[in-house]
User: Fold WD40-like Beta Propeller Repeat from Ekhidna lutea.
Amino acid sequence: MSLTVSLGGFTQSMNQLKTIADQYYEAGEFSEAMDFYQHILEMKPGQKQTCFKLAMSAYNSLKYQEAKFHFQELLVDDYFNAEAIYYYGVLLKMESAYQKADSVFQKLLKQIDNQDELYDITKLQKEGCQLGLRQSLTNNNRNFRKMYGINTDGNDFGAIKYTDDQIVLSTSSKTKKKQYLDNQYGGLLPNVVSFDLGDSTVTPNKAFSILNSPWSEATGSFSKDGKAFYFTHCDQNKPCKIVKSLYVDGKWSQAQPLDENINREGFHSKQPSISVTGDTLFFSSDRPGGIGGMDIWMSIKASESEWMVPINMGAAINTHANEITPYYSSAFGGLVFSSNGQAGYGGYDYYLAKGISFYSPQIYNLGPPFNSPFDDTYFHPGFASSNRSGDFDIYTYDFQGEIELLKSFLTEEALIQMVQLVTNSLSLETFRIEDFKSYELFDPTRQLEVVTKSKHLHRNIIGSAEPGSIARLRISNEIEIATLVDKKGEFEFRLLPDTISKFHVKVNQEEVESSVLGLSYFYYEYEFEKIYFDFNSDQLRSESKETLKDLLGQFDIENILLVDIHTHADHIGSAAYNFELSERRGIAAMNELRMLGIPPQQMRVFANGEGNPLSISDSWYSRLFNRRAELRVYTKEPVTFSHPEIFLLKKDISLDKASEILAISPSKLKEWNGLTSQLLKEGHVLRVFDPKHTTPNLRYIIPESDLDKTYLNYIVKQGDTVASIANKFGAIEEIIIEINQIKEALSPGEEIVIYL
Assistant:
């Protein structure tokens, strides 16, 4: 939209000026709208709604002192506007006036209905005041400072590392002969620029200038090999899109937009962050199905040119306000993002979402010096962007590694309490990550909510036989179910399909009589944990017994309708023997649960033999993970419970060594795994419930989630460095350091693991 009006002559009517001002306002061109609203108020002072829009225009143009002045004008005249009170409180927070801001938010909470969407974010802002007071005496001091030689007189933001000696960022300073004005913030629209970093010099280069247009480009992230660049492009009066450029023949190609699943027509999609594996994209968008404003979304790559329908990251991360500039740390398994709707210091703050999974993460405010009362956005290891000094500038700081940096934010003082919002729909418009029962995000463990609630007509088959014997029900050539006969000589198979017409029940190879009952059940269905077995064994391991105890601890026996035990073997041995072995494993688990109090009638065993392996690899640890029993629980009432992360020991190590590697206390490892010995043998499985553990040293411990990833064991040679090894194998230097927990120079003969 382009409108030109002579403001000096005031020849147009008041209504015409308001129409033009409102057009700029609705288009998000707040800097232009401010001029019109100011002149309208000069012509006719005292117009409350115009004053409010002027204040909001100033706020959205980052002119915070002007915004505060106009909001204060409204409040002095006893004009009640909930949004005006809210933003006045926000601006007080931005000045670190936490006590005053707390009073403003408290007043607002008393004046608005608790069903008002402003109510929840006001509560969060009030909590942010308490956070500011709580953290005022702490400081994660890392020599936080403006970056030398990078910042200009305009807005500079979004710095990311391209190579060890080159960074890329966005700037609103002049970079092209033709560069349009930014009608929201003033100045020029941003473009992408890059710099070479020397020991004491910073030199601009033109490596990325081909990607710029007269409109707006903002940085994003690079693929692991540095040959794909995902970034944001915004064209004239059109929503922003995520585009991708490839490095071909020594230069960057013309950027192409990602498909319509990412760039939904009519809505903004921007600020992409690609995972190290290249198959998962995090980004911000205002598309339908969000919680409010800009939200963080996630999509999985379906093919080289197609992406799956994105999933909203849910109410733990997103709020009714705005969540932007996500950065996913593949090394740490955490998501850093900026929000102006969480409990924070004012403006946009940085937050870290970290948990067993993103279904139920804990949210940490990064605190000072990273967060300020102003806007802090575009976090990237080593860089931050903030307008705490006026315009946006690039800041840098000292840190020893990505995991060390992110782990330092996981403090009790930084933890914020979330207002959880309820999801009422499962349509793709409102599909959020907490609704998706099988979306395993880099890590198969997660806190599960209700998976399925069903009411169906089922058949139960009952009969009698010798106490303690095994009853086997065959309902087809492919499906055989086993259960134990109880002390009274009775057995029962529950929740069978209503469509069963032919079946046979055998005990000790002989068919026995049975009866069929037709029953209707309401039930909730959950996937619990897996337990693992040693080679050619049906004996329960110590951690498996703890898993079964936890099942009883997290599910009330009176609430349990049924437990299914799906058992498996590895591929070594005949198919018939492996089927029989997998059934014995299920019966062993059933006997343990029976001793813990679950009646045999409430359990079933489905033996799978060597079918349905978790991994088709033939390593010894892949075979161990295939030797498993998967537990599924059916309950009468809904239950919430936690899954652990699973780790396998590749070598014999001590309990103290495992504790050191995972940064988890020995007492917790003992408690979670039923450990009685200080020596942990090769093949031992560890259950870990604390999401604050470090990335394990893969020389000793492998996560179950990495089962099918490609790792190479490498023996260090004379003259090798981490950098030379990374270059040799096309790996990422920092990931080699993190997964091997390298703290000093490598020694010849030392074995390390490389993730390819």
Q: What stands out?
A: The domain at 452-635 is CATH 3.30.1330.60 (60s Ribosomal Protein L30; Chain: A;). The chain has a mean pLDDT of 83. The first helix runs from residue 14 to 26. The radius of gyration is 30 Å.
